[in-house]
Automatic annotation (TrEMBL):
Residue ranges constituting the 2Fe-2S ferredoxin-type domain according to the UniProt record: 3-92
Source organism per UniProt: Cupriavidus taiwanensis (strain DSM 17343 / BCRC 17206 / CCUG 44338 / CIP 107171 / LMG 19424 / R1)
Protein name from the UniProt record: Ferredoxin:Oxidoreductase FAD/NAD(P)-binding
Keywords per UniProt: Luminescence, Oxidoreductase
Class of the enzyme per the UniProt entry, highest EC level: oxidoreductase
Cofactor: [2Fe-2S] cluster
GO biological process, one term: bioluminescence
Gene3D superfamilies: 3.10.20.30, Nucleotide-binding domain of ferredoxin-NADP reductase (FNR) module (3.40.50.80), Translation factors (2.40.30.10)
Family: Belongs to the Fre/LuxG FAD/NAD(P) flavoprotein oxidoreductase family.
The EC number(s) this enzyme carries: 1.18.1.3
Amino acid sequence: MSYRIQVAETEQVFFVERGETLLQAAQRAGVALRHDCQLGGCGTCRIRLLDGQVRYDEEPFGLAPDEAAAGYALACQAQPQADLVISTARDDEACAEPARHRAVVRAVRPLSADVLHVELEVPGAGTLDYRPGQYLKLLSSEGLARSFSMASVPRDGRIDLHVRRIPGGAFTDGILPRMRAGDAIEVELPLGSFFYRARDYRPLLMVATGTGLAPIKAILESLMDDPDCPPVSLYWGMRQAQDLYLHGEIPAWGDRLYDFRYAPVLSRAGADWQGRRGYVHDAALADLGDLSEYAIYLCGSPDMIRDARAAFIAHGASPDHLYADSFTFQHPC
């Protein structure tokens, strides 16, 4: 049995076979649906059901119960239970189309025991067209493709990456550490829908774990010295103090951001740690309480994003002003 799916805005029609998701069927039919992680975590593929119902093999953590009750679904995980009419309308900001470039490695250096700073340059490209917060793909000569958020604002063809080394990973523990200045690698960018929405003009709550700090750093760099910069609260979760690879640099961001608050939070802190302990989203809730007025950006582990999304919406956060980028390991890394 197949189900008929109609896209309200374009009147396109495609059919979903048993066991397929909406996104899989749309791709097979050549119907473009916005998507990103394809794991139910980022929320990029969110659609609205105008008619019909869907089911999930497992409830996606990128969709809050209140959103599902309001008729929203995630196309990458949803399976129809009847013919559907869906809306893909989103009052969003346009991004440049992805393109491939030949990049040159300018530097690879450690930021911590397991995080590398990779500096790339795309010669002759001028200022690259991407939104701070988006990501790129590195395409190795061995045929591996890996996604990494860009940790810098567009400038002179230069791109900074924060890459966590995964022990035994073919890419992060194999290819990248061997790279030297002058080496070439193919890149594809820009990708993703995680970027700053200036139109929200709300106080910003930025919550990151691990190298999820990278795209948030890019967003905050883009707001430095901006007279329209809203108040910013940055909560960064790590396990131990030595993992906070930019801890010494971040407080100085407050000199160029409006009303900046920075709170590092450790889940496995040693006895000498004098700062916050526990889960990073719990620390944000303890400080801020009602989140109904905030625009919220979450980036990092899928578990953090799932738990933070649910907790924040329960404390008043607007799903329409909550943006997430889930970092999921791509094996072999």
